[in-house]
């Protein structure tokens, strides 16, 4: 704020305050855009807490009409105090709304939290000793005469926070503020004091709930506010603004060797066009990127003083080079993210900071370090061409653990041509991955310069930004289809062919239909009105509300015609008494003696699923992020195992890579499986292999996986899954390879059955899916030609459970 009663604001600065909320660019860090609920992010004067792999962002909720507080001689524009919001994110780009972390109160003007007052610049830190999350913020009256620091506490990062009250630390005014927690867990309150003329740094008590009696007066008589503090290489950096109300001015940074020591001013922390107004913004926070030491994000507010609710944000990534800050808001910010060695001429951001353009000479490396979690799926692509001559080199993804040990490298060798070619890698991170280095390297024999463009990096592929709660009853979902009198939510695709009424078939003849619902379970259909039942057939009536699919929806002319049926089925719950006549999964626990022993003694157990997209859960509802968000078959199985054996210490790791071939599995079994010393590995390949590998080749690869694991973990046992069959209509009879594909899939099941021995058992989902398809139709059970829907994935989960649970 502007100190009351003082200093005229240079009016031309006001002109520079820009507003509006520019559209979010997909995948770009920042909070300009919308949260997971489709609302613009409302968090001003932000602070970020990084806790347990997640960024929690707190900010002022600014909504409602802006008004000018009467009787003030400065531009005291306000909106009602809206409390503090919280958002969370793993990537700083996609934000989940966590709700109001600290709510305001209404009609109680004496209460610090009353909407008539001021709640600004919330900052949260975690106290390791008390295991509490502590929020400090600026509490004031609308004329800013109160000048207190407020504190609130919570057991959970996202809140809700319990407000404990406010203080003037050591009787001193406290307005714009921040909180800083040092590496040694000491925390400090940093605030504009003495009528905003001088800043104070006051150490907090051990529980972080109150100021101590000591404080350091810094930036004396310099009228600084909006403090943002960070540490780098043992030095402390403080960025502040001048006091000019909501209008921007030039930032200043100060450096110290200790928080309570001497602070030295170093000038404007920003440089380049716009730096005289901090790019029309005011500092709020500096985030240290945990995974890329030396990299930071400067966070600032672009206040719209006459419409505060429409204030914007500015985030600028930067690096600190030799204690010097040069925060630059131009399109070259990409440079800060890149490590270069050798002859790399420039890295410019084209559209955003993730897309470089560079000229790379011989023996050079252009690479970026990114945080990657174990088993995350990622893709990196970059375009290259030879400018003169040809360049040899490689594109690579290298995975490292937290001790900088290289765990695994994927590379693609290239020789550049005159035209652009694409290079890059797609894969997943091995266990213990902490970060990846991603980039290109040219070799020393290069004759020319390599031109690179259009860098593309996708992280956490297939992971929904937000994990939703499953809305179906998983106990019901795990009732074995072959062994119960009630079927819950069987999927049927209501298909109409040649203009006939749409219909489908149930697996059993229903005695009683309990419900027929839309796939998201939000709508229930009525018998007679929406559908009729005859034997196993269910037919749509002519006035029905049921969604059906017309036969023309499917391409019947082209081979390998893809389709996506997600959420188009109906869910039928019914009772029946006719038995299952198809293949029945049987208990094979006798062949997995070590596993059974551990289960019986409730010993800690690690299971890894190793396979392809089906294993990963691709195109079931949680993967596609649609209701009812059913978990993958691996998770369903693990859940059931914990239930059946009545203990929780069973870890399920999904190490499957969508698109993976069994040869990839064989090549990398050591890296992906052995470090975790699994008790059980569920091996599930085949759906990407039938195009090329004969059953004998397939078998050899599976054997390699097993022997690589056994070499280092002799006690590991295995379940080999013969993959479900693909949609029989997927490959036309006219396809000359059809019999090759079909005989491969059918052959895989034979070779896997042959491999059964002590410690290795087989689950034949091929025969089982064929049996189900023949009683219903494949499209009742699959989302697309190669992937099961929730219903078929439940068969997977139930059948694996039956293999190791005798009474199931
Ligand atoms: C700014 C301050 C803001 C707010 C505003 C009120 O200078 O940084 O947080 O207090 O003044 O005018």
Protein described:
It is a single chain. Residues 2-27, 331-336 and 349-355 have low confidence and may be disordered. α5 packs parallel to α10 (790-804), α6 (662-673) packs parallel to α7 and α7 runs parallel beside α8 (738-754). The protein is globular, with a radius of gyration of 31 Å. The chain contains ten helices and 47 strands. The strands form 14 sheets. Strands 24-26-31-28-29 form a five-stranded antiparallel beta sheet, with no helix packed on it. The protein has a five-stranded parallel beta sheet with strand order 42-41-43-44-45. A four-stranded antiparallel beta sheet has the order 1-2-5-6, with no helix packed on it. The protein is mainly beta. Helices cover 13% and strands 35% of the residues. It starts with 10 loop residues before the first helix and ends with a helix. The site of beta-D-galactopyranose (GAL) has 12 residues, from β7 and β15.
In round numbers, the mean pLDDT is: 90
What spatial form do the alpha-carbon principal axes imply?
A: globular
| Secondary structure: number of strands | 47
Percent of residues in beta strands: 25-35%
How would a crystallographer describe the biggest sheet? 5 strands, antiparallel
Strand order of the largest sheet: 24-26-31-28-29
**Number of contiguous helices:** 10
Measured as a percent range, the helix fraction is: 10-25%
State the distance separating the first and last CA atoms.
67 Å
Structural class: mainly beta
> What does the radius of gyration come to?
31 Å
Low-pLDDT segments? 2-27, 331-336, 349-355
Which ligands accompany this protein? beta-D-galactopyranose
């Amino acid at each position: 704020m502007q100190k009351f009663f003082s200093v005229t604001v240079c009016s031309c600065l006001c002109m520079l305050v820009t507003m509006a909320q520019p559209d979010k660019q997909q995948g770009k860090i920042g909070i300009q855009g919308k949260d997971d609920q489709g609302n613009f992010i409302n968090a001003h004067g932000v602070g970020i807490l990084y806790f347990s792999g997640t960024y929690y962002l707190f900010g002022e909720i600014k909504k409602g009409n802006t008004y000018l507080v009467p009787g003030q001689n400065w531009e005291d524009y306000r909106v009602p105090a809206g409390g503090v919001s919280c958002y969370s994110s793993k990537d700083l780009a996609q934000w989940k709304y966590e709700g109001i972390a600290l709510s305001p109160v209404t009609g109680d003007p004496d209460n610090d939290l009353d909407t008539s007052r001021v709640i600004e610049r919330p900052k949260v830190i975690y106290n390791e000793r008390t295991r509490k999350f502590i929020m400090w913020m600026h509490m004031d009256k609308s004329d800013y005469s109160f000048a207190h620091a407020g504190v609130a506490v919570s057991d959970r990062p996202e809140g809700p926070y319990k407000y404990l009250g406010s203080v003037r630390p050591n009787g001193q005014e406290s307005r714009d503020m921040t909180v800083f927690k040092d590496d040694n867990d000491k925390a400090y309150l940093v605030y504009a004091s003495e009528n905003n003329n001088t800043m104070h740094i006051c150490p907090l008590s051990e529980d972080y709930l109150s100021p101590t009696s000591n404080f350091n007066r810094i930036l004396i008589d310099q009228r600084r506010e909006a403090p943002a503090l960070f540490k780098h290489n043992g030095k402390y950096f403080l960025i502040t603004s001048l006091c000019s109300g909501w209008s921007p001015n030039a930032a200043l940074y100060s450096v110290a060797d200790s928080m309570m020591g001497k602070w030295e001013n170093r000038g404007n922390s920003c440089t380049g066009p716009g730096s005289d107004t901090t790019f029309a913004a005011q500092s709020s926070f500096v985030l240290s990127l945990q995974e890329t030491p030396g990299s930071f994000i400067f966070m600032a507010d672009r206040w719209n003083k006459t419409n505060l609710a429409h204030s914007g944000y500015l985030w600028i990534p930067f690096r600190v080079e030799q204690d010097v800050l040069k925060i630059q808001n131009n399109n070259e910010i990409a440079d800060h993210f890149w490590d270069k060695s050798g002859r790399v001429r420039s890295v410019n951001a084209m559209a955003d900071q993730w897309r470089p353009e560079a000229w790379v000479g011989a023996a050079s490396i252009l690479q970026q370090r990114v945080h990657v979690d174990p088993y995350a799926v990622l893709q990196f692509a970059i375009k290259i061409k030879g400018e003169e001559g040809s360049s040899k080199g490689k594109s690579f993804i290298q995975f490292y653990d937290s001790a900088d040990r290289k765990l695994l490298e994927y590379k693609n060798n290239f020789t550049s041509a005159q035209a652009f070619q694409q290079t890059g890698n797609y894969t997943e991170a091995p266990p213990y991955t902490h970060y990846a280095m991603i980039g290109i390297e040219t070799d020393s024999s290069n004759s020319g310069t390599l031109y690179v463009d259009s860098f593309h990096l996708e992280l956490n592929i297939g992971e929904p930004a937000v994990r939703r709660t499953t809305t179906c009853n998983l106990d019901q979902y795990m009732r074995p289809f072959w062994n119960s009198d009630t079927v819950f939510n069987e999927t049927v695709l209501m298909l109409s062919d040649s203009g006939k009424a749409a219909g489908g078939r149930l697996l059993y003849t229903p005695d009683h239909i309990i419900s027929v619902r839309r796939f998201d379970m939000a709508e229930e259909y009525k018998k007679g009105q929406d559908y009729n039942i005859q034997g196993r057939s269910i037919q749509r009536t002519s006035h029905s509300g049921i969604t059906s699919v017309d036969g023309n929806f499917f391409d019947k002319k082209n081979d390998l015609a893809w389709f996506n049926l997600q959420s188009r089925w109906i869910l039928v719950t019914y009772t029946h008494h006719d038995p299952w006549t198809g293949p029945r999964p049987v208990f094979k626990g006798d062949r997995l003696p070590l596993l059974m022993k551990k289960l019986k003694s409730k010993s800690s157990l690690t299971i890894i699923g190793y396979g392809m997209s089906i294993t990963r859960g691709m195109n079931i509802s949680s993967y596609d992020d649609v209701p009812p968000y059913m978990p993958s078959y691996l998770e369903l199985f693990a859940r059931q195992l914990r239930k059946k054996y009545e203990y929780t210490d069973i870890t399920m790791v999904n190490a499957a890579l969508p698109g993976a071939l069994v040869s990839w599995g064989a090549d990398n079994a050591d890296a992906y499986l052995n470090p975790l010393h699994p008790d059980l590995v569920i091996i599930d390949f085949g759906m990407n292999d039938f195009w090329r590998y004969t059953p004998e080749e397939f078998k050899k690869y599976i054997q390699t996986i097993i022997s690589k694991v056994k070499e280092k973990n002799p006690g590991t046992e295995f379940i080999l899954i013969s993959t479900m069959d693909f949609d029989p209509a997927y490959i036309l009879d006219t396809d000359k390879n059809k019999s090759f594909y079909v005989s491969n899939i059918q052959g895989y099941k034979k070779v896997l059955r042959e491999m059964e021995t002590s410690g290795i058992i087989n689950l034949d989902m091929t025969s089982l899916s064929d049996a189900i398809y023949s009683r219903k139709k494949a499209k009742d059970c699959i989302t697309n030609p190669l992937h099961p829907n929730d219903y078929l994935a439940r068969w997977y989960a139930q059948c694996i459970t039956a293999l190791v649970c005798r009474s199931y």
